[in-house]
Amino acid sequence: MHRAAAILIAFVFLVMPFVACIPSAPAAPIPTIQIGIGDSEEPQEVAKTLQIAFILTILALAPSILIMMTSFTRIIIVFSFLRHALNTQQMPSNQILIGMALFLTFYIMAPVWQKINDTALQPYMNEQIPLQEALHKAAVPLREFMLKQTKEKDLELLVSMTKGERPRTPDDIPFTTIIPAFMISEVSTAFSVGFLLYIPFLVIDMVVACVLLSMGMMMLPPVMISLPFKILLFVLVDGWNLLIASVIKSFH
Asked: What is the pTM of this model?
């Protein structure tokens, strides 16, 4: 090892004089990017700057919007409950569950996004409506979806705790109230589904534990024996098909 290092160092010192004799090419100019704040005399330039800042803000908040204002929360919680009920540790992995939940979210939310595209995005891109009107029209389908999935008691709880005049119609409820009520309802629904998922697998664990105790195998973990039976049950009843169909139908 020391001999190889010595040979490498000697080679570097022998090559360096030849490299120094090579004529260097003229340096090409390196482009630079400058960002500054200047004065503007035209309101249109200020409006475009504000629109760019607004779009960048929306892109930064896109992951939070996807999680909080769509069906993603319910789906990923149900998948997590299923994995814990099966006790398969990290199988399916987090990446697979998140990917499945993400594409199922795209499938469930496709009608809502199609309405937003038809009523708000395309007219705005074609310069038929201003930005403020486009945002107002884009919020209508999303508001309808969230109100449809929100439980009345959760919405009533947040409305009752809001100071000021109580809304008379659903259209008067602000987004700052609808979003947390929607999230509470989604978590509550997902936990209800998770409880139902646990029941058959819990019965299998109890039966296996009773059989092992009756046979005197107290040192053998019941989970290790019940795992194949739980997977077999889930496969025989076509569990993924039933689970995903139930989750999709719960949003209709």
From this structure: 0.69
